[in-house]
Design a protein that fits this description.
Strand content: 35-45%
Number of domains: 1
Order of helices and strands: EEEHEEEE
Structural class: mainly beta
Largest sheet: 7 strands, antiparallel
Number of strands: 7
Number of helices: 1
Helix content: under 10%
Strand order of the largest sheet: 6-5-4-3-2-1-7
Oligomer: single chain
Shape: globular
Distance between the termini: 23 Å
């Protein structure tokens, strides 16, 4: 069953990794958990708008909603760097190609999409879609 992409909201991806820190004593090395988010709005023409942030969805969603709805022309006090891109679907995979604003490089993200009906019952209320 082909994944369904909604065009009336914002998706977010939670990115998490661990890195070692520096210690003043050599007895131990701290480990830091780094969490960031990529917020994505899919458009019907196959293009996307996305923003990378360390702010949680609860803290940033309303500002992002206005920002995305105005196409990045909001008078918001928060400074967002919107990245535009393209997406396409093949089977149950969604590929997102985003152009970086700094140096013009392209970044490719491949992720698996599941329709809500294909998810186990305990995951259905925990989707990564915000309306």
């Amino acid at each position: 069953m082909r994944p369904l992409v909604r065009f009336d909201g914002i998706y977010y991806l939670k990115l998490k990794y661990f890195r070692t820190g520096i210690s003043e004593t050599s007895e131990y090395r701290p480990v830091h958990e780094v969490i960031s988010y990529r917020y994505i709005r899919f458009l019907k023409d196959g293009s996307t708008m996305s923003i990378f942030s360390t702010k949680t969805p609860k803290k940033i969603f309303e500002k992002l909603r206005v920002y995305f709805l105005t196409g990045g022309k909001s008078n918001n006090h928060e400074l967002f760097e919107m990245q535009r891109g393209q997406f396409w679907m093949q089977n149950n995979m969604i590929t997102l190609l985003v152009q970086s604003g700094h140096n013009g490089e392209h970044y490719r993200y491949d992720f698996q999409a599941n329709r809500m009906s294909a998810l186990p019952e305990y995951l259905k209320d925990k989707g990564d879609f915000l309306e």
